[in-house]
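Justification of resources, computational component.

The compute hours requested in this renewal are based largely on the per-chain cost of generating structure records like the one below. Each record pairs the submitted sequence with a full structure-token output. That output is archived, and it is also reused by downstream analysis tasks.
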Amino acid sequence: MDRTSVARRCFLWMGAAAVVLSAPGSERLPGNGTGPSAVVIGDSQTGAGTWVDRGLAELGYRTVLRGAGGTGYTKASGTTGRYHDALTRKEWLLPEGKPELVVLQGGGNDVGYASDQELVRAAEEMITEMRQTYPLSRLVMVGVISSGPEPGPGGSRHAADRQLASVAGDQGVEFLAVGDWWTRFGLGQFLQPDGRHFTPAGHRAAGRVFARELGFLLAAGAAGPGEPGGP
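The structure output for this chain reads:
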């Protein structure tokens, strides 16, 4: 495995802001520079303005988002590698230092592409990578948003959510299950015609739910600093 160090693929936290050491140009964290920081790795559900981004902002986090449509733990898009490859090939640069929270989101694009065993191995690989990169940061996995254990595509996505929850449990990582949110929280009404992505109104609605549910999870965490699953 390529153990590319953070020092070779980093940008610097400079007090209240961050400067990216990647071309083209530079990037700064959103907001006024106050509040905790979070690094998020995921798929198209993790871009700017998505429900993941909005929920973290509602909780007061300044976020560094590393997400690309069509990617996953095992799945690459036409322009970006699977999560681990995107990091080790320096397609995505991560911040140096200690963000308060690290979020691994996704798995929907792996549905129908990878076997259960391949998804498990790739998820474990990313957990190991994040723990080595950020040993003192709190790590949370967010599963595959879907409609629940029904027949069809929604059920397949829910099964992937459950598979990732099992990996997280085995690895001692906090996990936010989202595999039934389309139905449980009435978010299915906000889906685009593709049946997987939210409309702008959907991202706003789901962002509020995400903030609430993630807030509950973070408040309930009992592990100490530096321990797996701990803050």
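The radius of gyration is 16 Å. The chain has one domain: 35-83+97-220.
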